[in-house]
Amino acid sequence: MKSNKSIVVAIAVFIGALLAGIAGYMIIEGYTFFEAFYMAAITISTVGFGEVQPLSDAGRFFTTLLIVVGFVSLAFVGRAVVESFFERIWNVSFKIKNMKTKIAKLENHIIVCGFGRVGSGAVDHLKAEDVDFVVVERNTENCDILRDKDILYIQGDASKESILDMARIRNAKGLLALLDDDPDNLFLVLTAREMNPTLFIISRAEDVSSESKILKAGADQVVTPYVSTGRQIADSVLVNKGLKSIIHTKDKLPEMIPQWVPINEGSSMVGETIQSVSTIMNRQVYGLRRDNRDHILPDADMLLQVADKLLVIDDMEVDQDMLDIREAEEKKVVIVDDNPIILHLYSRLFHKYGFTPITATNGKEGFDTIVRERPQAAVIDFMLPIVSGIELCRQIRAELQDSIKLVLFTGDKEDETRQRALKAGADDVIVKSANAFEIIEAVIKSLKGGERKT
Q: Which of 24, 34, 186, 405 pairs as cysteine with 377 (C-beta 3.0–4.6 A)?
């Protein structure tokens, strides 16, 4: 840096003045080295305690020159040090401000959570491929390294929603959960999946037993470094020796969906342990939410209280129709609902099955979106602000006729409601249930089935 060079030059000038003073007093006044050093030091520093011995006229003239040179050299040193100090502060502040501006403009980027051995390797590869990304890192020393390399980063806990918001997770297309601790990665995956249902998430797992848990929590892929490396080495040997011609990838696990089960007043689960409730439900408990705090992989002996929520994972059976849709050309689906949780959930599920989900939060916005986007299908809530779900179906049919499949979902089980919806133009009516995949199945079957129900 320029400031560092200035400091070196200033110190060199000061030392030069000091040596010149020592030499001058020894030559002109015949001082010993230590007497000359003392005189030069108090003269340059302008302290002036007194002369070691009376000075001659030549000595006084030399002292006057030395005072001037010493004052200038000290001023030069002081200026260089102050400039260096403020330059460093300004440089860091400017870099941070410039970095925040760049992060605020990120779109379709990758979020790398963790800058350890695995994270640094991922960062180097993304940088080499010229991909937009931002690193979320807690360690200050690692953040200093990232800043020196001009890599976009955010310092903080990657599992916190506020930090992920700063990383623009809702605009990102992928996230790498590369934290050192498996429970931390599990919680990060849960948080990221909830904030962006369509995000592609790859997580690291140190323990093989954590792999399935993280997949169930919402990760699209989990990599166990040591296992993956061992498998790759073994496959390479087999291929090289002609014992294996194709290296197969690991089969995917069945589709999973996380759900929070509330513990209400009067529930038989109140006072029971996590382990006993897990046995009764025949599902593993992955998290406990109590007093707005989340506990990942809670202790099996913890007793449940009223208002607790348990995080469990439901399996989904994938039929051939769903596989066919996933492998076919990507289709648009508009989801109209005023509940943001429902919108996030169905956006994620439709995205996983080959659809491009587009959302709207009321009937009027839903109509405008459907007319503009011309999707293959629309999923419409019965109870909507401004324009009801049934009226929206009627308006869409009048505008687009039969060019779009409409699925209405409602909490009303009455047959009259179903008949009204079908008469208004809905292709199918689904009664809301705990099984969120019924909507996906209904849309897929309506796209494959042809004519509307009557």
A: 405
Q: Exposure string (b/e) for 269-280, b if CB count within 10 Å is 16 or more?
A: bbebebeebbee
Q: Which one of 289, 315, 341 terminates a domain?
A: 315
Instruction: For residue 413, give Cα distances in angstroms to 395, 405, 409, 429, 451.
Output: 23, 21, 10, 10, 23
- pLDDT at residue number 266: 82
SS3 256: strand
Q: CB count, 10 Å around CB of 54?
A: 8
Q: Phi/psi of residue 316, each to 5°?
A: -125, 135
Structural tokens at position 450: 């042809």
CA nearest to 284, candidates 252, 306, 308, 261: 261
Contact 269, 277 (CB under 8 A): yes
Last residue of a domain, one of 207, 240, 273: 240
pTM of structure = 0.47
Task: Determine how many CB atoms are found less than 10 A away from the CB of residue 172.
Answer: 24
Amino acid at 396: I
Structure confidence by residue, pLDDT tens digits, 391-447? 999 999 998 888 888 998 887 778 888 898 899 889 888 887 645 667 777 888 877
Per-residue pLDDT at 251 exceeds 50: no
For residues 88 and 147, membership in a common domain is answered with no
Please tell me the predicted confidence (pLDDT) of residue 118: 84
* Residue (of 362, 423, 431) closest to 393 by Cα position: 423
Cβ 358 vs Cβ 375: under 8 Å = yes
Residues 114 and 224 in one domain: yes
Q: Let me know whether 202 and 111 are in one domain.
A: yes
pLDDT digits (tens, 9 = 90+) for 96-152: 778 888 899 898 899 999 998 888 888 988 888 888 999 999 999 998 899 888 899
What DSSP letter does each residue of 47-72 carry, written as one string? -----SSPPPHHHHHHHHHHHHHHHH
Domain that holds residue 194: 107-240
**248: which DSSP letter?**
P
Radius of gyration of the chain (CA): 35
Tokens of 64: 């006057």
Domain total in the chain: 4
Residue 250 lies in a domain: no
**What DSSP element (H or E) covers 155?**
strand 153-155
% pLDDT > 70, the chain = 80
Within a domain: residue 454? Answer: no
